[in-house]
Amino acid sequence: MKITQKGHSNIQEIDFNNLKFGATFSDHMLICKHKDGKWGEAEIMSYQPLPMMPGTQVFHYGQSVFEGMKAFKTDQGKVLLFREEDNFNRLNKSAKRLCIPEIPKEIFMDGLHEILNLDSEWVKQGDNFSLYIRPFIFASGQCIKATISDEYTFMIICSPTTTYYEGDMQVKIEQKYTRAVKGGTGAVKAAGNYAASFYATKLAREKGFSQIIWTDAENHEYLEEAGTMNVWIRIDDTLITPKLSDTILGGITRDSVVQLAKDMGIEVEERAISISELKEAHQNGRLKEAFGTGTAVSVIFIGSITLDENKMQFPKQVDSYARKLKANLTAIQHGKIADNHGWTTEVESSVASH
Ligand code: COI
Predict the structure, then answer these.
(1) Torsion region of 265: left, alpha or beta (phi above 0 gives left; psi -120 to 50 gives alpha)
(2) Domains and CATH numbers, the chain
């Protein structure tokens, strides 16, 4: 790996207590190209613009996949990555679905650890802080024929973060637009999935909602995902989240929460949730809480769910499962309690030859 360290860090100019999600970037980035059928040498350099021709394929056909992962700092100053293998595997699952060449594990892992070594100061201590890591691969060949590319670029960039949304989310159930269809790309992190979701989300935002809950494409009757998150509800003392399918992204936070809830003795069901069930549970006073999970948001409370003109509100629970799960997850991620599932990895000191 070739490393060119940035001469002067601009970290002193950053107000870490007023970060806007995803708008500040750390000092370094990684770049690696796939040409003539193989991945070349990865390079780490200062975060900088990319020279790209207007005919670059990703601009025209959106052949691009990404990941979202986080690094945390412990009270002892160690940098921990959370479930990095799972992000690596999911990136390659997405790549395969989009006809993008899979990234070799050593390029991904060595690059990730090296960049975090260089930018470890950007991972701040404190429960609210993390460094959001964005690995992505896109078609960087130049040709505007609608076909797969002859060149791809893998990159990693990092962005210090605090919270994604301010306060609880007020969401609306979407019954007109669709995020994913059977046989489509909903189960992978294709950039185009997000582009296609913006319009319905924008309409909902204009009405004062923070996000939407997508429903199934055929009947708009079953809950799928909440915007960029997996969705959860609690009926009585059971937590329910939609079962994974080819229209739902297998969230790594979702999987962690399934496990943590089970560890805490909470009953978890992964199954279809219909709007009728939701309405009925609310009418009977059995719908106790709702929340979203995702890397960027961690665990986030849903304050209300609106269906047509009916707003179902969730009063704060004294024994909120979401609060307990979030506290538990955050404590594991920051190395404060035992990591019984082996989810965290300490960032190794330099692995590459300079
Ligand atoms: C994540 O939680 O990492 C996501 O992918 C959401 C992102 C679009 C900010």
Answers:
(1) left
(2) 2-162 (3.30.470.10), 169-333 (3.20.10.10)
Distance, CA 352 to ligand 1 centroid (Å)? 29
Three-point CA angle 279, 263, 86, nearest 5°: 90
Model-wide pTM > 0.85: yes
Distance 163 CA to ligand 1 centre (A): 12
224 with 247: CB under 8 angstroms? Answer: yes
* Ligand 1, atom nearest to 251 Cα: 2
294 touches ligand 1 (CB under 6 Å): yes
Question: Which residues does residue 215 pair with via DSSP β-bridges, in sequence order?
Answer: 223
- CA–CA separation, 202 and 210 (whole Å): 9
DSSP 154-221: EEEEEEEES-SSSS-EEEEE--SS-S--TTSSTTS-BHHHHHHHHHHHHHHHHTT-SEEEEE-TTTS-
Q: Ligand 1 mean position to 284 CA, how many Å? A: 34
d(CA 96, CA 138): 12
Average pLDDT, integer, range 252-269:
98
| Atom of ligand 1 lying closest to residue 164 CA | 9
Is any atom of ligand 1 closer than 6 Å to the C-beta of 201?
Answer: no
* DSSP per residue, 111-127: HHHHHHHHTGGGS-BST
Bigger pLDDT: 201 vs 348:
201
pLDDT, tens only, 194-212: 999 999 999 999 999 999 9
